[in-house]
Design goal:
The chain is an alpha/beta fold. The chain has 2 domains: 106 residues, Leucine Dehydrogenase, chain A, domain 1 (Rossmann fold, 3-Layer(aba) Sandwich), CATH 3.40.50; 123 residues, NAD(P)-binding Rossmann-like Domain (Rossmann fold, 3-Layer(aba) Sandwich). Helices cover 42% and strands 16% of the residues. The protein has 10 helices and 11 strands. The chain has a 6-stranded parallel sheet. A 3-stranded parallel sheet has the order 3-2-4, sandwiched between helices. A two-stranded antiparallel sheet has the order 9-10. Helix 7 links the parallel strand 5 and strand 6. Helix 1 packs parallel to helix 10, helix 2 packs across helix 10 and helix 6 crosses helix 10. The longest helix is centred in the N-terminal third of the chain and has 21 residues. It is globular. Bound molecules: NADPH dihydro-nicotinamide-adenine-dinucleotide phosphate (NDP). NADPH dihydro-nicotinamide-adenine-dinucleotide phosphate binds next to helix 10.
C-alpha cells in the first residue's frame, strides 16, 4: 500500500511559517494584504474564495474582498484592477477565475501589476519562471514541489511525466520539475500511447480534470503519484484524476483527494502574499 503524502499537514506547516513572516512584517508596521476580486457568484468560486479568506485569517493576512455583480463590464473590472494596482496598502491581487464569459480573462490578468501578481499568472511571472529568474509562481505546481520536497522525494535525474498542459498547472509544473533536474515529459489529450508514457514515470503528476481517469495500468510499480484533479464523481463525491484505491496498490507514495494538492495551492498563495510584502 502506497505511503500517503499528506497535503493538509504540509499545508499547515507552510501556513505556520507564513504566519510567522507576516507577524514579523506587522512588527515593522506592514500589514500583509490580499485583495480578492470575485465577479458573479459561481458556486465553486464562492467555495474557493471562502477558503482563501479563511487561510488569510490563519496566516494573519488581511483580506480585502471586492464582490462585483455578474453583469460587471470589462471597463469596470479593469478600473477595479487599476485602483488595486495603485493602492499601496494592497500587496497581492487575486482575480478569481473563471470570469463570466463576456469578460476577457487574459486581458484582466495582464492588467494586474506584476509586483502584486500572487497567482503567478501574469506573462511576466510566467516568463521569469521559464528563464529561471525569481518571481511569483503559479500556486498549484509550486505546492506540488513543496509536497515532493517536504516528503523527501528526490526529483533530480528522475523521469517525471506530467499529464495536462494548462497554463496554470501542467506547463508551469514542467518548468518547475526541470528546475529540480528531473527529466520531464508533458503529455496531453493528443499524446499517443498515454499508458506507456505514464508507465515510464518515477514521478507522475496528473492535472486533467477527469474523475478517476488514471488507473493502476498507468503506473510504474514504486512510482510517486501526485493528483492535482478536483472532480465530482457520478454520486457528487469529491475525487481526483486517479483511481485512488487501484493506484495506491501499485505506487510507492500518493496524494489523496481531498487533502493532497488542494490545501497546498491555498498555502502557496499565502506564501506569495508575504513574499510580495517582503519585496
Ligand atoms: P484544463 O482543463 O485547463 O486542462 C486539462 C489538461 O488535461 C489539458 O492540457 C488537456 O489536454 C489534458 N487532458 C484532458 N483530457 C485528457 C486525456 N484524456 N488524456 C490526456 N490529457 C488530457 O485543466 P486545469 O489544468 O485547470 O485543471 C486540471 C485539474 O486540476 C482539474 O481537475 C482542476 O479542477 C484541478 N485543479 C486543481 C487545483 C488545486 O488547487 N488543486 C488548481 C487548479 C486546477 P489538451 O491541452 O490537449 O486539451
Amino acid at each position: 500500500m502506497a505511503k500517503l503524502i499528506n497535503g493538509k499537514e504540509i499545508a499547515e506547516q507552510v501556513k505556520l511559517e507564513t504566519r510567522d513572516r507576516a507577524q514579523a512584517l506587522r512588527e515593522k508596521g506592514i500589514e500583509v494584504t490580499l485583495a480578492v476580486v470575485q465577479v458573479g457568484q459561481d458556486p465553486a468560486s464562492c467555495v474557493y474564495v471562502r477558503n482563501k479568506k479563511k487561510a488569510c485569517e490563519v496566516c494573519g493576512i488581511l483580506s480585502k474582498s471586492i464582490e462585483l455583480p455578474e453583469e460587471t463590464t470589462m471597463d469596470e473590472l479593469m478600473q477595479v484592477v487599476r485602483d488595486l494596482n495603485e493602492d499601496p496598502s494592497v500587496n497581492g491581487i487575486l482575480v478569481q477565475l473563471p470570469l463570466p464569459a463576456h469578460l476577457d480573462e487574459s486581458a484582466v490578468i495582464r492588467a494586474i501589476d506584476p509586483k502584486k501578481d500572487v497567482d503567478g499568472f501574469h506573462p511576466e511571472s510566467v516568463g521569469k519562471l521559464s528563464l529561471g529568474l525569481p518571481g511569483f509562481e503559479s500556486c498549484t505546481p509550486a505546492g506540488v514541489i513543496q509536497l515532493l520536497k517536504r516528503s523527501g522525494v528526490v526529483c533530480e535525474g528522475k523521469e517525471c511525466v506530467i499529464v495536462g498542459r494548462s497554463n496554470i498547472v501542467g506547463k508551469p509544473m514542467g518548468m518547475m520539475m526541470l528546475r529540480e533536474n528531473a527529466t520531464v515529459t508533458i503529455a496531453h489529450s493528443r499524446t499517443q500511447n498515454l499508458k506507456e508514457v505514464c508507465r515510464r514515470a518515477d514521478i507522475l503528476i496528473i492535472a486533467i480534470g477527469k474523475a478517476r481517469f488514471i488507473t493502476a495500468d498507468y503506473i510504474k510499480p514504486g512510482a510517486v503519484v501526485i493528483d492535482c484533479g478536483i472532480n465530482r464523481d457520478e454520486n457528487g463525491k469529491l475525487c481526483g484524476d486517479t483511481d485512488f484505491d487501484q493506484v495506491s496498490a501499485v505506487a510507492d507514495a500518493i496524494t489523496p483527494v481531498p487533502g493532497g494538492v488542494g490545501p497546498m495551492t491555498v498555502a502557496m498563495l499565502m506564501k506569495n502574499c508575504v513574499d510580495s510584502a517582503e519585496l
